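Appendix B. Raw example, untouched.
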Amino acid sequence: MSARLVSCAIAGALLAPGRPAAFDDTPSVRELVASATAYVAQYQQQLTSVVADEEYTQEILEQTPRDPNMPLVRRLRSEVFFVFEPVDRQWMAIRDTILVDGRPLPYRSGARLAFESLPPAEVRQRFSRLNSQWNLGRIFRTFNEPTLALLPFDREHVSRFKFDRRTVTQTPDGMLATVAFRERERPTLIQDLALGSVFSEGEVVIDAAGAVRRTAFRLSTKEKKIELTTEYVKHETLGMWVPSVFRERYETNRNRGNEHERIAAEALYSNYKRFEVLTRVK
């Protein structure tokens, strides 16, 4: 079913404000996933070549044993370049950090120049580890992308996921549907260096047109638990929904040595605009 027909099906449901829709009055999960998949395919083109200002705060909530050389809080101010890399079908949020805890860096990462001279796949490989250099804590991570939870609706990945419709509600802004996803086949989106494939799960909240409003992406292994959530707002100038708040939560499971760590991070995005790159980005 087309996105237009799905939109009509949702808009036609008669609901009391704030109450879940009756199953007979709402589109099927198949229709909702089709609508979200069509939206994500378009969004991969829209969000590519967009840059925003980022205020990023990390905090170590608990760390046992404590690393005395590691600060408990770190604040970054950066430019962030959003690109969808079509060959490996991966999102990139490349951070070009300007300030660390209020202090200017003596150098810039050169992200803008890299986009002008290198293919997107090479930019992602070069900058994913560079982006992680300011991460607090012992948990190694290079996949903390605000748009990561859109990948289950990518045309190359959607068949490996199971989807469930949770709720459809009427809000002052219109109809919103919550769709849960669970990864069920390899290769998985996330690969752990020690454990191999890690299966993900989460939810997305979409509106009547299939536009994504909120996402949650979760990973759980015998060693750690991770949750990434993103809220989107409508950007009138760009004519699209863009990430506004990205929150990260990391926690390691206690082992025999009583090692444990909890980390929280929050990124706030503003001042979105487009930037020009070579035609390498399709």
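End of appendix B.
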